[in-house]
Design brief:
Elements (H helix, E strand, L loop, with lengths): L2 E10 L3 E10 L2 E10 L6 E5 L2 H9 L4 H14 L17
Antiparallel strand pairs: 1-2, 2-3, 3-4
């Protein structure tokens, strides 16, 4: 499964941030939102997709839970693209 993540916007800090963006899955684009938490217990991200997106993924033959897990893993590992002017250092602890 070829999943690419692009961040549109991040609001918050290193402690907690709301992320909006899109992901491309085998040439299909979908929107998502996520909440990222840091510090206590380490990094954690909860990604959400709309019911419409879930239905589209199912119709294309994808396992929705597997897609969400892959999306979250990419976000946690920093496997993503950012809008010009936004740097990972502004919201990620090194």
């Amino acid at each position: 499964m070829d999943l690419k993540v692009h961040i549109n916007n991040i609001h918050g800090s290193q402690m907690a941030a709301k992320i909006t963006g899109k992901f491309t899955l085998d040439k299909n684009n979908f929107r998502f939102t996520a909440i990222a938490f840091g510090r206590i217990g380490g990094q954690n991200i909860g990604a959400k997709i709309s019911k419409t997106t879930k239905k589209e993924l199912e119709n294309l033959g994808y396992d929705v839970e597997e897609v969400i897990m892959l999306l979250q893993r990419n976000l946690l590992q920093g496997d993503l693209t950012l809008p010009e002017g936004l740097k990972k250092e502004s919201f990620v602890d090194d």
